[in-house]
Amino acid sequence: MTAAAAAAAAAAAAAADGHGHGFKVLAPWYACERGHFDRFDPSAHTPALQKYASAEFVRALVADPRDSLRFDPDEDVWSYPVPVDLTDRGPGRARFATHQLVRTRLRKLYQPSHERFYAVVVELFCDRPGLPRPQSAEGLEVGFVMRRRHVEMSAPPKVLRTLSRRLTSELRAAGNQAGSDAGPYLSEAQDVLWADLAHRTAFEEANRELLGQVDLKKKTQAWMAGAAGGQWRRLGEPPPAGRPEDREQELPMWRLPARSGDCGHGAPPPERSLWFGVVPTGSADHDDRGAPKLDDRSVYELRCFVRRTPRPGHEHCPPQVSWSKPTEPFRLAPFFDPEGTKNRKISITMPDFRAVAARAAAPPGPGGVAITSPPGSQMSFDPGGGTPSGGSVGGTVPRTCTFALEIFMIVAFFVFSMFLPIVVFLFQLWWLLALRFCLPPSLEAAAALKAFFDGTRTLADMGQAETDAFDELLGAKGAGARLREASDAFAQDDLDDLVDLVTPPATAPVPAAPRPEPPVDDPLCEGG
Questions:
Q1: Cα(317)–Cα(301) distance, rounded to whole angstroms?
Q2: pTM recorded for the entire structure
Q3: Which residues of the chain have pLDDT under 50?
Q4: CA distance 466 to 498
Q5: In the chain, how long is the greatest CA-to-CA distance?
Q6: Which of 10, 213, 234, 322 is deepest in the core (most CB within 10 A)?
Q7: Residue of 294, 302, 209 lying closest to 250 (CA atoms)
Q8: Alpha-carbon span 152 to 99, nearest angstrom
Q9: CA separation (Å) from 113 to 281, 304, 338?
């Protein structure tokens, strides 16, 4: 055999065993089916983000990758608050909401504490005519990286304010929300503009003249990790002088097992090469300046890759790497995101005073919270009936005091209950009252107040019965009397709405179940 023939035979063998080509990393087949496009369509180039509402989501994903939750067009997009004039507010509880949310088109991912979890899923195809499915995963390493879209924006404040106001008005109109022309605060204008411009170009086209006055420097950053820790750095940029070598952090993906039950009848479909990874929505990592790796202000994207190691005898060759297109961009919800925290209820039962009092008669036990105060760190003061005075710091030896855990809970709840009405009245944050309710509710107190204000009577006209009713609804003695003193803060039309605000529902609200993605059949069941 000549050298040319041998080379041709080797090339043919490599092609036959799948080592002579790269890969296409595409959306999984069921995402294509739901979107009504095939794997040859450009829409198939984006890996699929899938949403779940259980920490056991990997079990569900492995059982059937088609089963996930729909992204809600209102809740699963990034939004920002803008002030609302009193004349533009709705009736009832909405009258006390000083702000409303304006929703962008940018995807938002919630945290595990919000009972939301995410996976990225791709399907591999051989990068050859017809995009055949690979027959083996031997020698393949599949993973993904998380990258950050960073922007440096500079412009005259008036330009930024105008652009953010126009963007806000446009988004309100798209959501059929009435409201004023108020936009985000100037300090947030850059953040708002970049978050939405990162996702679309229509606004850029309509406001090209103003955007021409904005200096935008966009760059994609990778999280580079090494012996010195991690840092976000422009993709391909070498480490600063004196910093050890590092590399982009890679996250693993796993192959989904072959399925035999996707076809209702007949033989199972040919095996697919589906891979998934768990999307991180939080991280304990910080860069060398102390900034967190992940935050709720940046725009992120994922890119998946396939790396194939050289065949035996070709170890000197570099590995072959194929990349996907980036996922849709997204932001991360902050820990205290109101649309996220409402998804999860945490139930705590306060200590039973009777049981704790009975326990006090027994000798001290080993349990509790042991607090040690080092020398020179022991505080001594006169509580002064709630106004501490005459304090000092001393101590010559460490002192350890053990407290029953119940004491901390009792005192903490007392402090919270005491300061909640103080914060409401001191800062006029009446909307805080809409964020609490007690069961069973005091329907009698609510009915009495509605009957009282059903006419021309005002807060200043309240007697003892009405102030007691407000005390009961607000859970704080003296709250009704303080409302009466603040009567000038409420117009007559606001009184019924105020009663609605503090009246709890008759039963505990039941959260709306997230909608699942619609079922789809595998087209390979029909020989596709």
A1: 30
A2: 0.85
A3: 1-18, 178-179
A4: 13
A5: 110
A6: 322
A7: 302
A8: 28
A9: 10, 26, 12
